[in-house]
Each structure stands twice: as structure tokens, then as C-alpha cells.
Design goal:
Layout lengths: L21 E2 L3 E4 L8 E2 L2 E4 L7 E4 L1 H4 L10 E3 L13 E8 L7 E2 L4 E5 L5 E2 L2 E2 L3 E2 L13 E6 L3 E12 L2 E5 L2 E5 L2 E6 L14 E4 L4 E8 L10 E6 H8 L2 E2 L1
Parallel strand pairs: 1-10, 8-16
Antiparallel strand pairs: 2-3, 2-6, 4-5, 4-21, 5-9, 6-7, 7-9, 11-12, 13-14, 13-18, 14-17, 15-16, 17-20, 18-19, 19-20
């Protein structure tokens, strides 16, 4: 017999759990019959002069690669993390940029309008700091960046390429090519992201928004842990006609 002390069930990390008020970096996603998924709540935005808040994330997180109907419910946490179709509805899909196989794409993004009763902490990136607006100049190779996401939580990395063209990503609807993308590798011996981190907001050392994470792979990078790809945040906000909250 070996004494191992009191054994407790491991709790879910906060970013895969229900968060009220809503938090940047937490689990979210659409609801579809027979399809259990979760991605990451990127941040909060506003449209025009309205005071209404919207969740920003990827098309494939909120709009099911063009297939989810506008007005469809978004849950937090995502269904994969136990989000309830009745108790955890927080927003409704409002707008997305279509993903187009066979054409050049620039962004994978969508917004969902928060339900009036749902509160959100619009600037807090738990474990990193407080969002300080949008970076006005372009990222450069070697710039240090950070994110918090549904799968890997807080991770740090550095930019390895920018204005990268021909990034081919495999989606359910086909292989989609993206131009003008940002490439990032993880710091130390860890990856910058993993499956489920899609939609994460990426910030620089001054806590300014720089990009929206949308894809990654298991190979490459100087540490061999894979590379992450992200849309420049300016292109995302312009395409959706929104601004950071």
C-alpha cells in the first residue's frame, strides 16, 4: 500500500469553464446538432455609434465556415466544454466574412451580438494584463507577442514572418488560401497555440491588439513545436466594420 495523500478531481482551467462576466480568451462557439466544438472568445467590439457589445472570433468558431445562420445562438463555454443550449446562450451570430475556397482570403472572422443580460469584462486578459487598444504600426520579425486561449491558456511567442502569402489551411469546406498573414512560434519549448485556440486575440508587449489567431500546425519553428498563423487585427476590424470596445 502506498499513501498518496488526499486525491481530488482536477478542475477545468478557467478558460474552459463558464465565465460571467464574459472574459477574453474563454471557450465559446456555435451550436449545431450532432457537432460538438469549442473555440476562443477573441475580444469585444462595437459597431458604428452603437453601444451594443459584440464577441469577435473566427468565422469557423462562430459561423461554422459560412454554414451557421445569422441569428444563431453562441454559447459560453462552447459545447465541447459543457456549454448548455439553454443556460449558456450569450450572443447571436451577427456578421461574418465568408471563407472562399479557390480564392484568395485575407481574414477568418465573425462577430456575435451579446444578449442584453450578459455582462463582459471588455479589457481583461486574465494572466496577461489589460488590453490597451490597437497597435497602429505593423509587426516586425522578432516582436514578442502573447495570447490567452481556450486550449493552452496563456502562451508567449515571437513573430517569425509577416505579410505572408499563400498560407493554405484545411477546413471542412476545403483548402483555403490566405495572403498577408502573420506567422508566430512559441517561446521556450512550447507551442504558441493548439486546436481550440482559434479566435484568440494576440497582443504585443504593450498589451495592444495586433492579430486574430486562426490556424496552426504541429511542425516547424525553431523549437520544433509548430507555427501559428493570425490575421492582422486591422484587416479583421475593417472587414467587419467594427472597432475594439
Amino acid at each position: 500500500m502506498r499513501y498518496v495523500g488526499r486525491i481530488r478531481a482536477r478542475a477545468k482551467p478557467w478558460y474552459r469553464s463558464k465565465q460571467r462576466p464574459l472574459l477574453i480568451g474563454s471557450s465559446t462557439g456555435f451550436l449545431a446538432s450532432g457537432f460538438i466544438m469549442a473555440g476562443t472568445l477573441g475580444c469585444f467590439v462595437r459597431s458604428g455609434s452603437s453601444t451594443a457589445l459584440y464577441i469577435l472570433s473566427n468565422n469557423h468558431v462562430l459561423a461554422d465556415e459560412n454554414r451557421y445562420p445569422k441569428g444563431g445562438s453562441i454559447v459560453q463555454p462552447g459545447a465541447l466544454d459543457g456549454g448548455s443550449p439553454t443556460a449558456d446562450r450569450v450572443a447571436k451570430l451577427t456578421r461574418f466574412v465568408r471563407l472562399e475556397p479557390g480564392q484568395t482570403n485575407f481574414v477568418d472572422c465573425a462577430i456575435a451580438k451579446l444578449n442584453a443580460t450578459i455582462q463582459a469584462d471588455v479589457h481583461k486578459l486574465k494572466g496577461i494584463g489589460t488590453l490597451a487598444g490597437q497597435r497602429s504600426d505593423d509587426l516586425q520579425v522578432g516582436d514578442v507577442v502573447h495570447k490567452v486561449g481556450r486550449t493552452t491558456g496563456v502562451r508567449h511567442g515571437r513573430v517569425t514572418a509577416f505579410e505572408l502569402d499563400g498560407v493554405a489551411v484545411e477546413y471542412d469546406i476545403g483548402v483555403i488560401s490566405f495572403d498577408n498573414q502573420i506567422e508566430i512560434e512559441g517561446a521556450g519549448n512550447r507551442s504558441f497555440s493548439d486546436a481550440g485556440d482559434s479566435g484568440s486575440l494576440i497582443v504585443d508587449d504593450q498589451m495592444r491588439a495586433v492579430a486574430l489567431l486562426f490556424a496552426g500546425g504541429d511542425h516547424g519553428g525553431s523549437n520544433g513545436k509548430g507555427l501559428t498563423y493570425a490575421n492582422p487585427i486591422g484587416a479583421v476590424l475593417k472587414a467587419l466594420k467594427v472597432k475594439l470596445a
